[in-house]
Amino acid sequence: xxxxxxxxxxxxxxxxxxxxxxxxxxxxxxxxxxxxxxxxxxxxxxxxxxxxxxxxxxxxxxxxxxxxxxxxxxxxxxxxxxxxxxxxxxxxxxxxxxxxxxxxxxx
Length: 107
Known about the structure:
The chain has 107 residues and is α/β, with parallel strands linked by helices. It has one domain: Glutaredoxin. It is built from 4 helices and 5 strands, in the order βαβαβαββα. A 5-stranded mixed sheet has the order 1-3-2-4-5. Strand 2, helix 2 and strand 3 form a beta-alpha-beta unit. It is globular.
């Protein structure tokens, strides 16, 4: 499935109405750690295909969603199930750390 690009217009259909839990990454074009996290996020989207939907939201283009989720810095990963937050990671993390967090949510 890959990573779905999310914005204000498609947030409801892609995230809130998702039948599987969503891992939503907030990022910005000027953010170095965000760029480093991008390939890891893409790899994990393949590994967890069908178990999670991986979504990416450019914080610069959707300030109302940044505010709604209380995102204070990027990268920020918010895990959601049925539209409700079930986990959060702020800052850049390695693939093993992100996988561990995902596995905990799946349990």
